[in-house]
Structure formats: C-alpha cells, structure tokens
TrEMBL record:
Transmembrane segments: 27-50, 62-80, 100-122, 142-164, 207-228, 240-263, 275-294
Primary site of residence: membrane
Keyword Glycoprotein in annotation: yes
The protein, known as: Olfactory receptor
GO CC entries: plasma membrane
The gene coding this protein: LOC110585519
Localization terms from the record: Cell membrane
C-alpha cells in the first residue's frame, strides 16, 4: 500500500500559468521573448563561428568563450521555446515527464554555467598573474579536459535528486504559477513531504553557487592586485576591459540566482520570482555575447571579418 502511494501519480500533467495579463499583453510578451530568443541564438552563434573561423581566436580564452556561447544557446533553449508555446496555448499544459525533463535540463545547464564562469576566471587569473607560465599551463588539452568536466559534473549532479522528486505523489492541484518547472512550485504541489530530498537538492545547489562564486571572487581579487602593479596605463586598461566584461556577466548571473536559490523565496512575490528567473535564464544568455564581443578588440575584428565574408558570398 505504501509503495503504491509513492509511485502512482494521479497528476499526469501540470499547468504553467506563465505571466498574467490579457491577450494583448500575452501577444506583446510572445513577440518580446521571441525577439530576445532569436537575438540570443544569433549573438551566441556568431561568437561560435568567429572562434571557429578566425585563426587569431584559436587561444584558450576564446576556446572557452566559444564553448560558453554554445552552452548559452542550450540554456536559453531549455526554457524559451516551451514558454513561447505556452503563451499561445489555451490549456498551458505540460506533461509530467516533460516538466521534469525541463527541470533537469534547466538545473544541469545552470550548474554547467557556474562551472564555466569559474574556469573562465581561472583562465584570466593565469593570463594576467602568471603570463610567462600561461602558455605551458593552459594548453589545448587542459582546456578540453576542463570543458568536458564542466559538462559532466553539470549533468551528472542532478539525475538522482530529480528522479526522487519525480517519484513523490502528486495527487492534488497541478497548477504551477511560473513559466517553467522549478523546485519550489513542484515541491509545493507534492502530497508527500520530502524534507531530506529538498534539503539535499538545495544544499547541492547552494554549494555549487557558493564554491564557484568564492573561487571567482578570489581569482579577481588576486587579478586586480596584479593589475594595479602594472606600470603602464595601457596595460591596466586592457586588463580592466577584459575583466570588467567577465565581472559584468558574473554579477548579473549570480546576483539573481542567489536571490532565488540561496535566500528564502517565501517572502518574494511570485511575479518578482518570475522576473528574477527571466533575468538569469533568458536575459543573461542574450547579454553575454554583447558584453564579451563589444568590449574585445580581437572579437570585434573577427566579427567584422565574418560579416565581410558573408557580404562577399
């Protein structure tokens, strides 16, 4: 009897309410998110092409940036297409398995993003604090190993806790007041409380966030200390330009994620939770290519070459 209670789901689908408002507002939001998504794909896709085609960008920093742009495409794709379909849908329903699949990909890609930002901070730290050792330490092989580890750790960290959450009994209401399947709303709909599973999940998420942000901050503190010792103003400007763009991305992503997953969200209004989720899941992948490419001379040159090639062809 106990076994059937934990394994039989009377809920076969969830209803994602998305954003409130009349049909005109829904059409406006659909158009806005569609434009943002298309720009995200174009911006990050252009960075991938530039890194691949321009020989000057065949360096560890740009190899990581190209992979990061690839990750951003998938991160945005884990939520936006479903959200767009949901806005136009009359029922706003998502299947039980579809909801948990989105939950898994959203968290796995988010974790991978945290690890990528830490590796990119390590790369900048080595390049500026240990420039003589940088070519021997940051080899192509090490870059490939680090990138592979990011994807592996990101995707192997969540299958077990998410599987256990999916095995809980969902027998009551199935309405999620959000635009995606997230931990808080799903746990609120479960008929059987699972404090241990919830604690493990939030501890795991908090540890990933805490250790990566502490490592990033440590790298940049050491890096800035070295920059201030650089005698030339031009050298300082170049270092600040590179690090400034990285720190802008880190602040935008971690600022909103930490408010959502480290601080208690009970006091945050539902609409505010949706807006915060929008910032780190949809706006960050859009801003990243702009921040990285517009503040970088080599990337600007590579992008110009790509546009020039496209015009000729």
């Amino acid at each position: 009897m106990n076994r059937s209670a934990t394994h039989i789901h009377t809920v076969t689908e969830f209803v994602l309410l998305g954003f409130p408002g009349c049909w005109e507002i829904q059409i406006f939001l659909f158009s806005l998110f569609l434009v943002v998504y298309v720009l995200t794909l174009l911006g990050n896709g252009t960075i991938i092409c530039a890194v691949r085609w321009d020989p000057r960008l065949h360096t560890p920093m740009y190899f990581l940036l190209g992979n990061f742009a690839f990750l951003e495409i998938w991160y945005a794709s884990s939520t936006v297409p479903n959200m767009l379909a949901n806005i136009l849908s009359k029922t706003k329903a998502i299947s039980f398995s579809g909801c948990f699949l989105q939950f898994y990909f959203f968290f796995s890609l988010g974790t991978t993003e945290c690890l990528f930002l830490a590796i990119m901070a390590y790369d900048r730290y080595l390049a500026i604090c240990h420039p003589l050792h940088y070519p021997t330490i940051m080899t192509g092989k090490l870059c490939r190993i680090l990138v592979s580890l990011c994807w592996l750790i990101g995707f192997l960290g969540y299958p077990i806790p998410i599987f256990f959450i999916s095995q809980l009994a969902f027998c009551g209401p199935n309405i999620i007041d959000h635009f995606l399947c997230d931990m808080g709303p799903l746990m609120a709909l479960s008929c059987t409380p699972a404090p241990i599973t919830e604690f493990i999940f939030y501890t795991q998420s908090s540890l990933v966030l805490f250790f990566t942000i502490m490592y990033i901050l440590r790298s940049y503190i050491l890096l800035l200390r070295t920059v201030f010792q650089v005698p030339s103003a031009a050298g300082q400007r170049k270092a600040f330009s590179t690090c400034g763009s990285h720190l802008a991305v880190v602040s935008l992503f971690y600022g909103t994620v930490m408010v959502m997953y480290v601080s208690p969200t009970y006091g945050i209004p539902t609409l505010m939770q949706k807006i915060l989720t929008l910032v780190y899941s949809i706006m960050t992948p859009l801003f990243n290519p702009l921040i990285y490419s517009l503040r970088n001379k080599d990337m600007k040159l590579a992008l110009r070459n790509i546009l020039f090639r496209m015009r000729i062809s």
